[in-house]
Amino acid sequence: MSRLWDKGAPLDERVLRYTAGEDHALDNRLVAYDVRASIAHAQMLHAQGLLPAADLEAIRSGLTAIAVEHARGEWQVRLEHEDGQTALENLLTQRIGEAGKRVHLGRSRNDQVLTALRLYLRDAADALAAGVDAVAEALENLARRDASIELPGYTHMQQAMPSSVPLWANGFAAELRDDAQGLRQTHRRLRANPLGSAAGYGSPNLPIDREDTREQLGFETVQMPVTAVQLSRGKAEAQLLFEIALVMQDVARLSADLLLFYTQEFSFVALPDAFTTGSSIMPQKRNPDVFELIRGRSATAMACLAEVMGIVAKLPSGYQRDLQLIKAPLFRSIDLCMETLDILPAALAGVRFRPEKIRLDPSIHAAAEANALVVNEGISFREAYRRIGERLKQDAGKTPK
Fold first, then answer.
1. Is 70 a catalytic residue?
2. Please, which residues bridge with residue 193 across strands?
3. Catalytic entry in 156, 232, 333, 380
4. Which residues form the Fumarate lyase N-terminal domain (predicted)?
5. What does the alpha-carbon distance between residue 262 and residue 168 come to, in Å, rounded to a whole number?
6. Catalytic, out of 2, 61, 267, 279
7. What angle do helix axes 165-185 and 109-145 make, rounded to 10 degrees?
8. What is the fold of 110-357?
9. Annotated domain spans of the chain
10. Is 232 assigned a catalytic role?
11. pLDDT by 10s per residue, the chain, length 401
């Protein structure tokens, strides 16, 4: 298997396994994006007089067919390919001959993979945002369905003020809507075209038109200067991972509430059997595993963000092989969040509040009573606070033992 960097010296297979790692498997999700960027690059080369029309047509049709076959599962990027870029160029050259070798003019694997990654991340950010909106909508539906059910509002794990299912559910929905907006804002760093920066210093003596590929691929700007491209690696990725961590944190807190409400001591909610599991030893139990794992997996999202930030921290300028390691935590966090968002709307649709089990402590209205005294008697809130506190203390003393 020919490698794009091969200088003819033999390579210890242990080196290939160690340096390629899981990169070949991870690159499978980038194949369609890499093909799209490669065709755009070839069309630019032709427009600049650097690639004959016949070669362009062979490259375009060859890459299109290869992408279709990959989507059908007829081939995969394997370890012997090392990475997706090598796999595509080798497959293309096998099919169309010498023309396949001409597609790499004026680019490096460095800007090639980053271009594919940014195209993929644009789609991933939009898919995640849509998934978050779907969870928010499920919560809003829950709020409408159980609009009349009162809940205690808690501070410090104590009943503090009156609340309701709509206040509870819509609070989480509002924060998730905000998270969806944050995900869409990650496009700012994903809109810069890195293609044509090559290994980080451009392609001297070649009339590369980066504006051409910017327009073809839907980027808003050309990332300049070329030396900024490799310095930007990890920043868009970390921003997306940060927004994912916020999403996972919000759904983890939502899950923590539902897990508390599901305990026998609370019994505020019933969870659907389809989203709970049984115990292997206790026949009476149904376990809220889905919500427990959502709560726990927020830690994975935060760890992925920390891993990417740690990889990039203190790297010198220019391309470094360390940057390859960003893909694993990046894809892991995206997949985890998508799987969570996929299951939550159906799980929330099955949540049933049990108003007959919900008891509000009478003292929960104390703040409202103090506010009423301020309005009705014109006294300060601190005086009203003192009076209500004294009355509650006296009432507690009168309670039968």
1. no
2. 222
3. 156
4. 23-301
5. 15
6. 279
7. 160
8. Fumarase C; Chain A, domain 2 (1.20.200)
9. 13-105, 110-357, 362-398
10. no
11. 554 545 555 667 777 677 667 878 899 999 999 999 999 999 999 999 999 999 999 999 999 999 999 999 999 998 888 889 999 999 999 999 999 999 999 999 999 999 999 999 999 999 999 999 999 999 999 999 999 999 999 999 999 999 999 999 999 999 999 999 999 999 999 999 999 999 999 999 999 999 999 999 999 999 999 999 999 999 999 999 999 999 999 999 999 999 999 999 999 999 988 888 776 777 667 889 999 999 999 999 999 999 999 999 999 999 999 999 999 999 999 999 999 999 999 999 999 999 999 999 989 998 999 999 999 999 999 999 999 999 988 888 775 54
